[in-house]
Amino acid sequence: MLGPRAASLTRTSLSRTASVSLRRGVASRAAVPLSCSQKLVFPKQIQGVSVVPERYLQISSVCKSEVVVVEGPAFAESISEGDIRWNKQVGDFVKEDEVVAEIETDKTSVECPAPQSGTIVELLVADGSKVTAKQKLYKLQPGEGGGSAAPAAPKAEAKNASSEAPKPAAPKQEAPKAAAPSAPPAQNKGSIPSSLPKTAPPPSAPMSSTPVSSIPVQRVRVPDGVQPDHAITGSRDEVRVKMNRMRQRIAQRLKDAQNTYAMLTTFNEVDMSNIIEMRTRYQKDFQKKHNVKLGLMSPFLRAAAYALQEMPVVNAVIDQDEIVYRHFVDISVAVATPKGLLVPVLRNVESMDYAQVELELAALGEKAKNNKLAVEDMEGGTFTISNGGVFGSVFGTPIINPPQSAILGMHGVFDKPVAINGKVEIRPIMKIALTYDHRLIDGREGVTFLRKIKNAVEDPRTILMNL
């Protein structure tokens, strides 16, 4: 047992030792990592005596400015990896929640926002590399003042670029030198007339019969992250660009659909007179009440949901040796984006009205426009509608979106002469197409289903009266 004075001296000695050790640990943090909240342990520590004074447990300025290693986001269960595209570079200052990079998966793009304000110190993965969920991506130096160093990097690069700019001009000055030596040998040989026909044929000679396909083509591979120029200028070269993950996934799914399904397409025409008249009459009131325009998609979505309820087999799908019938209608709507075709899903369309459909379409469209669609927004559809009419399509056969069993293709509305009660009238007509899996859906069911959609669009009262 220690006496009171001995215990007091021991506490003082231990406190001084802890203070010195902690300060040295902070000064040499690169060699010995030390957490600011971690207490030091001494071999002869006395039970009940605090080794580290309370004031040293506070986070110092050194710890507050510690470099942070930022990890990537978590992916959905169906996604294992993606390709990263950096929006910022080393030395750039970023604010909290500012997008530093995007990870492009085979279904969507996932943004990587900065967890706090600071300066990017190091990128741990190269642009275009494959990354997995929660992988360490970059190092960030926290602090609001770190942004002052960011503008210096572009200036330094600009100076280097300006100093290196004259270098590409060197071959232009050397070109005349390479051509100059060729003249003296021709003059020294003395037999100029005999050499002219071999090197310079008459201008009136016929053009070469060499096929264009045999002319050498200069192939250029564009580095990742560089936007290529796709303009056709007539030059004999070509550019190769790496296919992004979304395009690869689209290609794979479409080929799988072609190899798996027994696809058959049936067609019909829809008289759009009543829908156009309804939109014209109620557009202002509809927009005033719901703050969204009444488009052409909502009548077709509601008509499709009505027809799917009437014919559940079109809403079903084959799973190995079983048929899976879904008791809900989730309709995928094809949306074209610069990165590829996306198919966000409207859930439980069977319980929606026109206003709810338009509001949901507007919300999904805004997400797609701002690249905010999540994987969950595009999973689980039971039927798909593709509207090629917005691009002026007249006719076409859509391809099934796996693992669904059918897809409806909408096309443009054009005035055409039609026979009405024995008279020829000009009506706005839209051609529609239904591609379905003939393994599950018979021809009679496919044709009947498409006619139900046609009748429900031409006269929406059939839905209200459940006819």
Detailed description of the structure:
This is Dihydrolipoyllysine-residue succinyltransferase component of 2-oxoglutarate dehydrogenase complex, mitochondrial. Its main location: mitochondrion. GO terms for molecular function: dihydrolipoyllysine-residue succinyltransferase activity. Its cofactor is (R)-lipoate. It holds the Pfam family 2-oxoacid_dh. The protein has helices spanning about 5-25, 60-65, 150-165, 170-180, 185-190, 190-200, 245-260, 275-290, 295-310, 355-370, 445-460, 460-465; strands spanning about 70, 80-85, 95, 100-105, 110-115, 120-125, 130, 135-140, 220, 235-240, 265-270, 315-320, 320-325, 330-335, 335, 340, 345, 385, 405-420, 425-435. α9 crosses α10 (about 355-370) and α9 (about 295-310) crosses α11 (about 445-460). A 6-stranded mixed β-sheet has the order 11-20-19-18-14-17. A 4-stranded antiparallel β-sheet has the order 1-8-6-3, with no helix packed on it. Strands 5-4-2-7 form a 4-stranded antiparallel β-sheet, with no helix packed on it. The protein has about 475 residues and is an alpha+beta fold. The protein is built from 12 helices and 20 strands. The chain folds into 3 domains: about 5-60; about 70-150, RNA polymerase II/Efflux pump adaptor protein, barrel-sandwich hybrid domain (OB fold (Dihydrolipoamide Acetyltransferase, E2P), Beta Barrel), CATH 2.40.50.100; about 250-465, Chloramphenicol Acetyltransferase. The radius of gyration is 35 Å and the shape is elongated.
